[in-house]
Design goal:
Order of helices and strands: HEEEHEHHEHEEEEEEHEHEHEHHEEE
Strand order of the largest sheet: 6-5-4-3-2-1-15-16-17
Helix content: 10-25%
Radius of gyration: 20 Å
Number of domains: 1
Number of helices: 10
CATH class: Alpha Beta
Strand content: 15-25%
CATH architecture: 4-Layer Sandwich
Structural class: alpha/beta
Largest sheet: 9 strands, mixed
CATH topology: Metallo-beta-lactamase, Chain A
CATH superfamily: Ribonuclease Z/Hydroxyacylglutathione hydrolase-like
Number of strands: 17
Shape: globular
Length: about 425
């Protein structure tokens, strides 16, 4: 973490702590001190900085927990990006230990659900010659399987189960390892389900559902299917796969799972690596991100899909979501692309203030696009969104990812009008 960022964080934190009217669930986060534990009634969304991919931990108002992805790409971050974990710990272990620390406040250090957005190593874990085997030898420990070895998982959900054949399957070591993990989990009696587009009950609160009428996680899109906004009705965007030329068959990114979370008036959008790229209009049905965003409607916080890459966060996506806060799960020199970041910041696409937080901006990206990256609210660290009971206000807290102390770097408060 640069000294310049640390000074900026201290200024932001001091200013934010002076904001009046912050709800009780947002109190007591202090710059320089460890992040305070989750409290019942509040919603915490942790975007975990790993330098290897995406991972998000959600702790709902009743303590129901969910994780989206556990990226452990075999491609290391640039040496100049000072980010953990280092060689002393695998990324999946880092994520699992992070989850275990923060789930302790719920009284049940377990994940009620785990969503794998799509089958790519920076979302579920890579394998290589040094990847250790599970104790029974059925698969290797990386990403999702590393997390599962540290934190029990109640329900595992992905878009490919049970056959992993759509749109044409992924024949790569990381995918075969993940499928072997799933098969072993099922053999041992664990629960696995296919992501159900349009559903609002697959990730429902499991501990106090009757007391949470204003909390919902809606499944928006996956595998070219998108929620229409009416009941659980969906529509299909992809043509029949057998009718497509091989080069036109959608990849895993275009099949990513997207969700919208609502808590009272607060809204949140996440869509894995969905893209809005239509290949210059030649394949309009490949743009799944735009209809997913339109189904979601305006939200307070949005995660930039595909790490803010050039082929995602299109103009109509930005217009539909209109978030006050953007979060980029970044770690590569290409995260984010300047055109995507410019759209996130554009006053032409929607008016009003906004903040953009990155979990790990590469110095190469910062150097090449300084005129834009200077406008980031954070260039690195875990980015935690803390929503007050009822969803009337929220806070974005950036914490240090160089160790496991979770010290607060900056605090930014937001009250909904």
């Amino acid at each position: 973490m640069s000294a310049a960022f640390t000074r900026r964080g201290l200024v932001l934190g001091a200013a934010a702590l002076g904001v009046a009217g912050v709800g009780p669930a947002l109190d007591e986060d202090v710059v320089g001190q460890p992040l305070r534990p989750w409290r019942r009634g509040g919603l915490d969304i942790h975007h975990i900085a790993t330098g290897r991919g995406d991972s998000t931990l959600i702790i709902g108002p009743d303590g129901t927990s969910m994780m989206i992805d556990a990226g452990a790409s075999g491609t290391p971050p640039p040496a100049s990006l000072d980010i953990r974990p280092g060689p002393e710990r695998r990324a999946g272990e880092w994520i699992g230990r992070y989850a275990r620390r923060h789930l302790a406040a719920t009284g049940e250090p377990r994940l009620d659900a785990f969503l794998v957005s799509h089958l790519h190593p920076d979302h579920l874990g890579d394998v290589g010659p040094d990847t250790p085997p599970a104790p029974n030898g059925a698969y290797q420990l990386t990403g999702v399987s590393d997390v599962a070895a540290l934190v029990p998982i109640g329900l595992l959900v992905d878009g490919g189960y049970p056959d992993y054949a759509f749109p044409r399957g992924v024949d790569a070591p990381f995918a075969r390892n993940y499928v072997a993990f799933v098969r072993e989990r099922v053999r041992a009696g664990g629960r696995v389900e296919r992501f159900r587009v349009g559903a609002a009950d697959q990730f429902a609160p499991r501990r106090a559902a009757a007391a949470l009428p204003d909390f919902e996680i809606r499944n928006l899109a996956a595998n070219g299917e998108v929620w229409t906004g009416r009941g659980t009705e969906t529509r299909r965007l992809f043509p029949p796969i057998e009718s497509l030329a091989r080069d036109d068959i959608p990849d895993e990114n275009a099949c990513s799972a997207a969700i919208r979370l609502r808590y009272g008036a607060f809204g949140y959008f996440a869509a894995g690596d969905l893209t809005s790229n239509s290949f210059d209009g030649a394949l309009p049905w490949r743009d799944v991100e735009t209809p997913a965003a339109q189904a979601a409607g305006p939200v307070d916080v949005a995660v930039a899909a595909h790490h803010g890459m050039f082929d995602a966060t299109g103009p109509d996506v930005v217009r539909a979501l209109k978030p006050r806060v953007w979060i980029i799960q970044a770690w590569h020199a290409a995260h984010p692309s300047p055109d995507a970041l410019e759209r996130m910041l554009s006053q032409r696409l929607y008016p009003g203030p906004r903040e953009v937080f990155a979990t790990g901006l590469s110095p190469a990206n910062e150097l090449a696009h300084k005129w834009l990256t200077d406008r980031l609210a954070a260039r690195g660290g875990h980015v935690v969104v803390r929503v007050a009971p009822g969803g009337g206000s929220y806070r974005v807290v950036v914490t240090d990812n160089h160790d496991e102390a979770d010290r607060v770097f900056s605090i930014s408060d937001h009250r909904r009008s």
